[in-house]
TrEMBL record:
Transmembrane segments: none annotated. This is Putative glycerol-3-phosphate cytidylyltransferase. Gene3D superfamilies: HUPs (3.40.50.620). The gene is tagD. The lineage of its organism: Bacteria, Pseudomonadati, Pseudomonadota, Gammaproteobacteria, Enterobacterales. The keyword Secreted does not apply.
């Protein structure tokens, strides 16, 4: 969790407020082919409880990203660099920044290691 906190703290330092889009369970299944470990409501509560986060919203579709950015008057979109280049098309709405990820702590990576042990 500390890596997630560090990522969000870095994002928060770029602006006056930090709003975090939490992927819905359905979007996670569509992106990763599996249900998330925690239900979307729990993930939203966890993220909302972080001191650096000013608000959260449920992100139900990558196709609606432009609407989310406009609707929340985003100045900066911060994504992990595993998405590098994929959101550059939104640069007409706001600045797009990609932060390096730490793959050793990804939930997907942890699940794959556990599966390998079973």
């Amino acid at each position: 969790m500390s890596v997630i906190c560090a990522f969000l703290q870095r994002a928060r330092a770029l602006g006056e407020r930090l709003l975090v889009g939490v992927s819905s369970d359905a979007l996670n299944i569509a992106k990763k082919g599996r249900a998330p470990v925690y239900h979307q409501d729990d993930r939203m509560a966890i993220i909302a409880g972080l001191a650096c986060v000013d608000g959260v919203f449920l992100e139900e579709s990558l196709e609606q990203k432009a609407e989310y950015l406009r609707g929340y008057s985003a100045d900066i979109l911060v994504m992990g660099d595993d998405w590098a280049g994929k959101f550059d098309s939104f640069a007409y709405i706001c600045e797009v920044v990609y932060f390096p990820r730490t793959p050793s702590v990804s939930t997907t990576g942890i699940i794959e290691v556990i599966r390998g042990l079973l």
